[in-house]
Amino acid sequence: MLFRSNPAGQLLLYDIVGPSQLQSAVRLNATAFTLGRLVGPAVGGGLMLLLGPTWGILVNACFYLPLMLWLWKAPYGPAFRSEPRAQGRAVRSFRDVFGAIKDIAGNRVIVSMTLLAGFASLFVAGGYSAQMPEFAHDLGHGDADLSYSVLLAADAAGALIAGVVLEMRSFLSPRPRTAFVLAVMWCFAMACFAASSSYPLALV
């Protein structure tokens, strides 16, 4: 089941699978999200062409209904936990937020991964997706409808293939250094894409 990569979804994922399978669950969840990015535009476009905008958007919204029904009886919460877990304290004020920051300040892994995710979101994130039509136009495609969709599909396909390979072969142990190296490679790939003047090269 797919959860968007927001804090609430990540906590729910942890509660369902537990610490022993958390890394695999996060990878599979991210891969499923990427698969949605790959297939979603094609399915949505087909629905709008087939049913029109109003009914197409309604049917698209109904795709979330199975997830909502599953969450109603989802296997999470104290009744489904096989091991005792520490109860988290409630956040009642900014003092509690600063207290949490103080608690994790000595954990280099948590701090480094938080900073890595924060900087990646600040400087790159998914902002390039909204610029894909302009990229396609600059690469010599005046009618960018299909061209930019293919660029988005290539982006999602690369992430999907990487996620499947990493999950099946257990490549690259989950360490902070691995995350930083992959983040640097990703930024380098994005810079090469932005500097490319060839549409086939941009797809690669």
Describe this structure in words.
The chain is mainly α. The protein is built from ten helices and no strands. It has helices spanning 7-17, 22-62, 65-72, 94-104, 108-123, 127-130, 132-138, 144-169, 176-195, 199-203. α2 runs antiparallel to α8 (144-169) and α7 packs across α8 (144-169). The mean pLDDT is 75.
Number of helices: 10
Q: What is the share of helical residues?
A: over 70%
Taken from the alpha-carbon principal axes, the silhouette is: globular
Would you identify the regions where 5 or more consecutive residues have pLDDT less than 50?
none
Helix-strand category = mainly alpha
CA radius of gyration is 20 Å
- What summary fits the major beta sheet? none
Strand content: under 5%
Number of strands: 0
Mean pLDDT: 75
Layout of secondary structure:
Elements: H1 7-17, H2 22-62, H3 65-72, H4 94-104, H5 108-123, H6 127-130, H7 132-138, H8 144-169, H9 176-195, H10 199-203
Helix pairs in contact: 2-8, 5-9, 7-8
In short:
By secondary structure, this protein is mainly alpha-helical. The chain has helices at residues 7-17, 22-62, 65-72, 94-104, 108-123, 127-130, 132-138, 144-169, 176-195, 199-203.
Task: Throw out a few tags for this protein.
10 helices, mainly alpha, single chain, globular, 204 residues
